[in-house]
Design a protein that fits this description.
single chain; 5 strands; globular; PIN domain nuclease; PIN_Sll0205; TA_system_RNase
Amino acid sequence: MAIKVLLDTHVLLWALVEPDKLSPAATEIIEESQNTVVVSAASAWEVAIKFQLGRLPEARMVIEGYHNHLQTLRTLELAINSQHTIKAGTLNATHRDPFDRILAAQCLVEGLTIITKDHAFIEFGVPTIW
């Protein structure tokens, strides 16, 4: 059965740079052509910021060919809209990371499951796969 998933930022990076870090379930879902795999525009922003701050030097190749990499993975890019931002701002959760909050909001608004190793998304009520 085909599913719709959003990749957490670390999953996107691992899929592109260190695929051995992905769980078998994550790899299978990403590679299954019947699935819809989505990447948030917020992930590009997060990667660029962390690269600029020197916290993710290996992200240079991801940034330089970002849209080509998304095509290689057969992913769709999900833009951020006002429904997403309002939901992110009104989530009843103590987790404050703005990138996690926007990804959680996008999943809730768009009916997506997130592929992540981060347990914080459970607090938001987002279905997760790892």
